[in-house]
Amino acid sequence: MATAKSHKSKPVITPADDFSKLSIEEQKARFYANGGKVQQIPLGVSGQVATSGPRHITLGKRHLQAQ
Known about the structure:
This protein has 1 helix and no strands. The chain has one helix at 21-33. The longest helix has 13 residues, at 21-33. The chain is flat and about 65 Å long.
């Protein structure tokens, strides 16, 4: 006799109230009221800091060493 497998249903995902337009506007107002400032970054500027030097790779066959 085969037994039925129990399947758990996936939870229904609903948009959170925290992401509504009104809430975002309220969050921005609180941010500015508490002295928050928005900084504009020019195009092409990155905040990523290079942690290592360049890595040179060679694609294709390796050069054979002379013996």
